[in-house]
Design a protein that fits this description.
By secondary structure, chain A is of the alpha/beta class. Chain A is built from 13 helices and 13 strands. Chains A and B meet through helix 6, helix 10, helix 11 and strand 13 of A and helix 6, helix 10, helix 11 and strand 13 of B.
Chain lengths: ~400, ~400
């Protein structure tokens, strides 16, 4: 008997989270003999609970679904709603009643760690009440920190953005190469340094900028940092340093929190400044050289111009594979990427128990980080390079990208 | 009699300043019956005085000159060196002796306002000593604030970057559209608001984000701003605001300076924070909504990915036209862009007396700014759109752009 499908997006967006949405919707429509309507929940599970839902399958009647594929942000809107730990909470029967009203048989949730927690709870509740609704998680995160998958959709495009942009900024930073300067680039990643490591892709030759790269996986020592910067300036007068927003002292304190020890703004609030800004002030104070900090900010996760074709393809495939897994009877699973052994890059798709994923984080391996913690190794480059290959032609009008949006 | 040419770059780079360098060098090489060597001064006039010079014409023997064309930053390096006001300063004979040693007949300087001041002084000194060296300025600035030219090379690509990136950030900002939020985007331009105005290009429909745009040409009233944000949130719950880094109170004080009235960092220094960060704190305090600020920073001037094909073409042509002007006997001139009247965009190239340019600034016309100073008009869109057209295919390797650099 034909059932309907529903798809939602949750957590912070990536440049390809809508690629996975496209994959789910297009495959859902293709499987018309097994799937009826394809619905989209607006603002994730939170919006769905409030009755917000759309017929996203209908987008295929115009160009809109094609536009969705390369539009940054979350087309359906997102939420940061955590379902209650106790499966006897009344929200569960309420939610399943709403799912049954829409005759849902297949539920797809595109997101990171927290979204997999939602998939876990819903599939466990379903098992408890003998519901036959199948729950599948589609991974996404620029942080690349999900376990049981080689990498996550969204990381490749963010890494391409970081590699390209750090190379551009380093080129810009060279223009006064008769004077010393330090440029500190702050990159997203609170707990895992994968994206910051992608700064290494920017190097054009051995010893090129960024000379120093600091990840949150290693305790950050401020004195050692200053000594390293001082030493590096001797061979690289216009020094570029990449740091993760999440660098910390190894004792549970973020480096950016050192700034707020003293600074207070106009309104008497503690100054909230990034780690980059804090280190900018530190270098200025200790070394007296010209220094600036650049925060790459949300552009890392929403640049459509620097989409990686490999990443977008895999994101779409993740959505397609999720639908196929659900149809073949799987539930409580997340789609995973399996890299085939060997020197050429080949990827296959699988699934893993979502319960093994939702409360874990995958850091950059310690042996991919150099001994003094100021650089990453060639293993990372070999791992990351296949993920940033290829460009995507974005539909354009008047010199600007066309993005889909809900009217 | 055949003379040599020399070219330099000065001031902050743009995404196409190397396009103009390419234009000068390729045209210089093409005019081989009139021009001998084509030299490049390293780090502008300051480096040249220190004897730093290269045979840039030789780059055409490999792919390197083609790579230069689309490389951000200043390939030759830059300087911020101001020649003395008094033409009787000993630096002038020293400089001309060095020019004569290299048998220079043609001198090209690619830069903004201050660089045109250099061209002015050198051409006036040359007239005084009856030197026949010809001095030509090639304009560049993302600020678009040079007079006697319709626009400047570098502005189009920066405007394309701003239009695209603001559209991407606005799309990202929409994902929690069931909650109120304010995103403040800080755009370069200390005195002229041209680039900030380009934020308006991001709108996909009337009333779309960025709903508010503030330029330095209008005195910024903090109370009026808060009232406007509050009002705008009613119709646009995820509000995006573009501000120029140079917004000021109209009495000579930048808005960012209000922050440093109180804030002091760890080292007892006044906190230097941008206008965006200051307004982020202000909105948080006054309206209590979720707010973040994003500084587009140097990416505005060094993004090769978002090069405008129109801008790059014109930048190359500006270099070519400069060489042709020098060969036809002109000196003490800057290359200018003349937009032909009519509805279709057509550009011709001319020259103007560099003395009329070097100490002037061109603001955005007051009648292109809406009455309450919170938006710009359709005239600006019509002016800017032709300048952001077309994409440039950047040579690539391993998924990243190839950039030229001096070994």
């Amino acid at each position: 008997m034909k059932k309907n499908a529903i798809v939602g997006q949750s957590g912070g967006p990536t440049a390809v989270i809508n690629g996975s949405l496209y994959g789910v919707v297009s495959e859902g429509l293709k499987q018309a003999e097994k799937i009826g309507q394809v619905y989209g929940m607006i603002n994730g599970i939170e919006g769905f609970l409030a009755g917000r839902c759309m017929d996203i399958g209908a987008l295929s009647e115009t160009n809109e679904l094609e536009y969705v594929k390369t539009t940054p942000g979350s087309y359906l809107g997102s939420c940061r709603y955590k379902l209650p730990e106790s499966l006897s909470d009344p929200v569960y029967p309420e939610l399943f009643k709403k799912l049954e009203e829409k005759d849902i048989g297949y539920f797809f949730y595109i997101g990171g760690n927290d979204s997999m927690d939602t998939v876990s709870k819903l599939s466990r509740y379903a098992a408890g009440i003998n519901s036959d609704i199948r729950f599948i998680g589609i991974p996404k995160t620029i942080d690349n920190d999900l376990v049981h998958t080689d990498h996550t959709p969204g990381f490749g495009s963010a890494a391409k953005y970081v590699g390209t942009t750090v190379r551009e900024i380093a080129t810009d930073a060279m223009v006064y190469d008769n004077k010393q300067s330090v440029t500190i680039i702050e990159i997203m990643g609170r707990h895992a340094g994968w994206l910051t490591a992608a700064g290494a892709l920017a190097r054009k030759f051995e010893g090129d900028n960024p000379v120093l790269i600091y990840l949150p996986e290693v305790a950050f020592d401020q004195d050692a940092f200053i000594a390293k910067v001082k030493e590096s300036l001797k061979s690289t007068p216009n020094l570029v340093v990449c740091i993760s927003e999440g660098i910390n002292d190894g004792k549970g304190k973020f480096i950016c929190e050192y700034a707020s020890d003293v600074g207070v703004d106009n309104f008497g609030h503690k100054m909230l400044t990034g780690s980059g800004k804090y280190l900018e002030n530190l270098v200025k104070e200790k070394l007296g050289v010209k220094v600036r900090s650049v925060e790459l900010n949300v552009c890392q996760r929403c640049s459509s111009t620097l989409l990686s074709a490999a990443d977008l393809d895999e994101a779409v495939n993740a959505g397609i594979h999720g639908v196929q897994a659900a149809l073949s009877g799987e539930t409580g699973k997340m789609v995973t990427f399996i890299r085939q052994p060997g020197s050429s890059y080949e990827l296959s798709y699988g699934t893993a128990d979502v319960n093994l994923i939702c409360n874990e984080e995958k850091p950059v391996p310690q042996d991919w980080i150099t001994q003094d913690g100021s650089d990453i190794s060639e293993e990372f480059i070999a791992y990351a390079l296949p993920l940033i290959q290829g460009n995507v032609a974005i539909p354009e009008k008047d010199g600007l990208p066309i993005f889909a949006y809900r009217k």
